[in-house]
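Q: I have 128 residues here and want to know how they pack in 3D. Can you give me a structure?
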Amino acid sequence: MTLKSVHHIAVICSDYTRSKEFYSTILGLDILAETYRPERKSHKLDLGLNGLPCIELFSFPSPPPRPNRPEACGLRHLAFRVDDLTAEMSRLKSFGIECEEIRIDEHTGKLFTFFSDPDGLPIELYED
């Protein structure tokens, strides 16, 4: 097998409008395509970063809640590189989104923090 890159990560949300706003306006991801699938009563939003697809946002009727504490097996979090962690944290705060305290990666010495999407999915910002 020869993998070239990650194509996308699929995220299921409980409130499509709220999550679309979060991922496109607050995080600043580009909307590449938006589809409503009436047979599934489901929205599908393709989001990109720097011209490349990265997240497929889905809505389905009555999805079960995400297990979080203690952490469950499966996807743990999404992580994005940023140039200025404190500036991005301030921007998130302007939207009413609180971040955890800044941590230092013990292996690289780089700064990072976590916050959550509207459904509690942890998102990491990593200063690189």
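Q: Anything worth noting?
A: DSSP finds two helices and eight strands in the chain. The domain at 76-128 is CATH 3.10.180.10 (2,3-Dihydroxybiphenyl 1,2-Dioxygenase; domain 1).
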